[in-house]
Amino acid sequence: MFAIWIMGAGTAQADNLDQVLYRFENRALALGRYGSVSGFQRKLFVEAARCKDGPVAVYGKADGIVGAKTRQAIVDLQPCLNSAVRAVVGAEQYGAITVGLWRLLMPVDISPPGAIERANQLTFALEGTDYDVIQFNFCQSKNPRSGKRFLEGDPYCHTNDPRAFLTWGPRGATAGAGAEIQQIIFATERANPGLLQSVFGPLTEDMHRLALGNNDAAFDILCSIWIDTAQREDFKRRFADYGARDEVQRAYRQVYDAANADGGKIARFFKLYGALRPIIKRDPTEIDLAFFIDRATHGSVPPGDISQLVDRMTSFATRTRNLPSPGELRKQLAAWLPTHHKYNDRLARDAIFLIDDPDVILSDAHRRMWQQRSGLKASDFGLSDRRQIASYPVAAPTGYEKIEKFYTVLPEDKRACPSTVRSARRP
């Protein structure tokens, strides 16, 4: 099988067969259970076990986590590849998933993940939650004095995120100020009428009222579910089923790519670099793109009016005869876009997009936070400053912003939410 494949590989295809897609070094790459990487793992584990004449189970589940077991399977597969195949799939990079290895194992209609997908997966890996994971944000923080949470018996409610109410999935969608969860529900139901009913059953009306409600309504509805242990666990189970569905995941991505959401924020970065193009003589790189996506998810982005930022970046880029490297430009841009999120978290995340550039001198704080909290590099996801991305596929607005929201709470919902929760404290 493998020898036949290599003989049939076209010249244009073979030119980049050794390009790295994913590489595990210091920290496992959590790419999600529902993506194509899980399918790749299943094929890889079967072929590696066949080559080693051992059980498939030794490699564990196909879980979308590129770590030690995936690397071992790639190493175990090597003896069953002839020398010609090993040469073109980049076998010298033991443990790396290359374009060639992907094409070797996967059906021809499942292409290797492109740079945009892998850039999004980098942020997914940092957020650490899959499509079937939700977290209530009511009183989730411990009382610094007692070390207990409200549901654990502390008389006070502490939360470090009082405006989120509920967090869901790989981009940290919330039901609070941004109402991303409501937008995803709206987009999913519009494309798949009746899906809410089939999944949420007796909680369907709650979901309808959540989707149509204003911010106050979202708080009261979700609080009434959260405070009831049995209802809370039923809701989490049903939401996991909901998030595991392809149609819901498509709507999730559509909402985040929309012009009135993160897609619009990413477009501002591209607009900024477009204004700089005559000076820097390039489009954004793959690592630039990953930086844009992560900033749109967790940080700050260029303002609507980018003219002042263009002037500052123009001055920076032309201050010497040598143009700044892509990493140097990202580092300076990050300094001009201060974040409202936790400072150390942002330092650690920014370093991911700087560490691969030899021209960047990382501060001690950058390096220390990066080592403590991440250890990932953009190159672990096969992203490079040598390849450029001309544009990002921004989706049309979701239409949710045109819907008039109102207070949809029932009296029993409002009564169910304790006054202590309504007056939550910062930890």
Q: Which value, in Å, is the CA radius of gyration?
A: 24 Å
Oligomer type = single chain
Give the integer mean of the pLDDT values: 92
Query: What is the makeup of the main sheet?
Result: 3 strands, antiparallel
Count of distinct structural domains: 3
Number of helices: 21
Shape: globular
Q: Low-confidence stretches at least 5 residues in length (pLDDT < 50)? A: 3-14
Strand content is under 5%
**Structural class per helix/strand content?**
mainly alpha
Q: How far is the first residue's CA from the last residue's CA?
A: 59 Å
Give the % helix. 40-55%
Across the major sheet, the strand order is: 5-6-7
H/E topology pattern = HHEEHEHHEHHEEEHHHHHHHHHHHHHH
Jot down its keywords.
427 residues, mainly alpha, 3 domains, two-stranded antiparallel ribbon, 7 strands, disordered N terminus
List the helices and strands and how they pair.
Layout: H1 2-8, H2 11-14, E1 20-23, E2 29-30, H3 36-52, E3 65-66, H4 68-77, H5 83-88, E4 96-98, H6 99-105, H7 115-127, E5 134-136, E6 166-168, E7 173-174, H8 180-191, H9 195-200, H10 204-212, H11 215-226, H12 229-243, H13 246-256, H14 262-280, H15 286-297, H16 307-317, H17 326-336, H18 343-352, H19 364-373, H20 411-416, H21 419-422
Antiparallel strand pairs: 1-4, 2-3, 5-6, 6-7
What does this protein look like?
A hairpin with a 4-residue loop joins β6 and β7 (173-174). The longest helix has 19 residues, at 262-280. α7 (115-127) runs parallel beside α15, α16 crosses α17 (326-336) and α18 crosses α19 (364-373). This protein folds into 3 domains: 2-113, no CATH class; 131-257 and 403-422, no CATH class; 279-381. It is built from 21 helices and 7 strands. It is mostly helical and 427 residues long. It starts with a helix and ends in a 5-residue tail after the last helix.
